[in-house]
Amino acid sequence: MTDTLDIKITKTQHSRLAETDFNTLPFGKVFSDHMFVADYIDGEWKNFEILPYGPILMSPAISALHYGQSFFEGIKAYKHADGKVSIFRPDKNAIRFNKSAERLCMPTLPEEVFVQSIAALVDIDREWIPGKANHALYIRPFMFATDPFLGVNPSATYKFVVIVGPVGPYFSKPLRVKIETHYTRAAEGGMGFAKAAGNYGSSMLPARKAAEEGFDQLIWTDAKEHKYIEEMGAANAMFLLDGTLITAEAKDTILDGVTRDTVIALAKSWGIPVEERKVSVAELIEGAKNGKLTDAFGAGTAATIASVASISFEGEEYFLSDPQTREFSKKVLSTLDDIKYGRAEDTNGWNYIV
Ligand SMILES: *Cc1c(COP(=O)(O)O)cnc(C)c1O
Predict the structure, then answer these.
(1) What is the three-class DSSP state of 43?
(2) Summary count for the chain: helices (H), strands (E)
(3) 277 and 320, same domain (yes or no)
(4) With a 6 A CB cut-off, is 233 part of the ligand 1 pocket?
(5) How does pLDDT run across 139-169, given as a tens digit for each residue?
(6) 304 CB less than 6 Å from ligand 1?
(7) Residues 29-52 pLDDT 10s
(8) Interatomic CA distance for residues 42 and 44, integer angstroms
(9) Are both 43 and 14 inside the same structural domain?
(10) How far away, in angstroms, is 19 Cα from ligand 1 center?
(11) Residue of the nearest CA to atom 5 in ligand 1?
């Protein structure tokens, strides 16, 4: 699998696997024994290496820290009942990785190198993939600028790093969400479509304020009028309104989610009409009132399919149907899980077997 990519491998002498409690896996806090690192120097990627997970020594002047030339990806690997291991649609993440890189004036990475780097690391740390339902190995590839230079110019050197860790469910219950009409996540011409680190830094204050008001998540609206739905936290917002699956179109303010794309493909295969278009707050509130909004969820790799319990807008909270009774999102989630965990035939070729 890694025959075209020459990776120097140094295995750890002190595996933390035995001492890791797989029954308590707070999201993003537990990391495996190894990491993948590569350098971009003199206009090319080199020094592909898998080594023990640990700190990376850096100059305090690196431009990633000062000017935000930094972005990431999020992918999951799954363990099947027969012991097989698969990564879900990493080719899609490879394409998006390069879109983020281009927007941030950073070097791209050949798609095969991206996928092979991840597969090699997952292979070495495959014992870290939890076998339990709703559990997976979360894969975090990222790139950042490493020139020690305080000038607002693109760096000439970069690091590409991949870290992985076992995770359980991201959300434990259906979400009370608030429609945000003051703060903005992304504006036209900006970098909302990139998984740029800065997008998440700017989301934290609005998210904390929403949490202080008792909400689990917020739904972003368009920067211009705050009338149209964009995304739900770090997941794509999807709705079933009057029998049609609707979601914001993947334009420059929207992250083109792999889960979003997968849900759309499944819906189409089931004959459900799909509309990727402007979704107004008004039509959702109307649908919540007259009962035509029969499903609402966030779609993302980390969140999977996260049911929305209620939507709040201008101080009014609108409760939707009991998530347990929602046919569409339940079918999406179970179908997705069956494919990812190898229980159903992967007719679309979504599983990359390691
Ligand atoms: C990562 C992310 C998503 C979900 O994308 P997936 O590829 O499905 O994981 C959606 N919106 C934002 C803002 C994200 O960062």
Answers:
(1) coil
(2) 8, 18
(3) yes
(4) no
(5) 999 999 999 999 999 999 999 999 999 999 8
(6) no
(7) 999 999 999 999 999 999 999 999
(8) 6
(9) yes
(10) 32
(11) 257
